[in-house]
Specification:
CATH topology of the domain at 164-261: D-Maltodextrin-Binding Protein, domain 2
Strand content: 15-25%
Shape: elongated
CATH class of the domain at 164-261: Alpha Beta
Radius of gyration: 23 Å
Order of helices and strands: HHHEEHEHHEHEEEEHEHEHEEH
Largest sheet: 8 strands, mixed
Distance between the termini: 56 Å
Mean pLDDT: 86
CATH architecture of the domain at 164-261: 3-Layer(aba) Sandwich
Oligomer: single chain
CATH superfamily of the domain at 164-261: Periplasmic binding protein-like II
Length: 297
């Protein structure tokens, strides 16, 4: 039983395809299939249920063993990084889970500074919902994640990054341009574009606290689509300033009812964190410590 077969099997599950796994690993599809079949033969049990129409799915045993394989692969990666850092030949991979606005607005800043110090470290990004990021931690898919603190469990450590204020977004020329602060009550007669994505709960909470029901004209999942609809004058919306501030041809207003989501880096206990990830946390802490001091004052 070899580490290489664990890596192949894990990559097949990660990509959802023997063909895509082969491309990622620079192997032929036949070699990937043989590696998985060889692993099943060694274990004496099927790990996958294969279906010509539906592809494949994990067996119950496959699901359980996958977690152990990923744990072994993670430890192997840490061993390689420890050796590389000791010899000043930094190498390795950091797998990061994030939600869309954080991927666009927070990660580039950290990675830019990080790569100046450690140019040989590679990154793999996974983008999803708050819940998916937590699940990726539990299944060993990611090493570090950008999360919202309110949605966290107690098994992960947190490094606070910033407070992301919820703001009103409206088209150019709207009556709200004349107001420095917008009362939530003023929104109830406005056509509203309701987000269906990961920050919907924050918007619902704002309206619940104000005891009003918005005039919802559209419910939209994609943040970029919401922005485009606001630009075209189809309605107003409430969303995170982190994302909306960089959107063209829309204006932002502060609510009288302040609501923020607290964005943080989540990571396992330090003894289980690789040297590359520890260095990443150090860079993030240096970049965002000033922001946190401002927010705490």
């Amino acid at each position: 039983m070899t580490i290489a077969r664990f890596e192949v099997f894990s990559k097949v599950i990660e990509t959802g395809s023997f063909t895509k796994a082969a491309e990622k690993l620079n192997m032929t599809q036949s070699a990937v299939s043989h590696a998985v079949a060889g692993l099943e033969s060694e274990l004496g049990i099927p790990l996958l249920i294969r279906d010509r129409k539906k592809g494949f799915m994990l067996t119950e045993v496959g699901q359980k063993t996958l977690g152990h394989m990923r744990e072994i692969l993670n430890h192997m990666e840490k061993i390689k990084q420890e050796a590389a850092f000791a010899s000043n030949l930094e190498a390795g991979t950091i797998r990061i889970g994030s939600f869309a606005s954080a991927t666009a607005c927070i990660l580039p800043k950290i990675i830019s500074k990080y790569q100046k110090k450690y140019p040989n470290i590679e990154f793999i990004f996974f983008e999803g919902t708050y819940e998916e990021i937590i699940e990726w931690f539990e299944t060993g898919v990611i090493d570090i994640g950008i999360v919202v603190q309110q949605n966290m469990n107690a098994n992960l450590n947190l490094l606070p990054l910033t407070k992301d204020k919820m703001v009103v977004a409206y088209p150019e020329g709207h009556r709200f341009e004349k107001e420095t602060t917008i009362n939530v009550q003023e929104l109830k007669e406005e056509p509203f574009i309701m987000p269906k994505g990961i920050y919907r709960a924050h918007v619902d909470e704002i309206f619940a606290q104000a005891k009003i029901k918005p005039l919802v004209r559209f419910e939209v999942q994609d943040c970029a689509t919401i922005s485009s609809m606001v630009q075209e004058g189809l309605g107003i919306t409430i969303g995170p300033e982190l994302f909306l501030k960089d959107q063209p041809k829309i204006k932002l207003g502060n609510l009288n009812q302040v609501k923020c989501r607290h964005v943080a880096l989540a990571f396992p206990a330090i003894p289980y964190v690789s040297p590359a990830v520890q260095a990443f946390l150090t860079v993030a802490r240096e970049l965002f410590s000033h922001d946190n001091e401002l927010h705490s004052n």
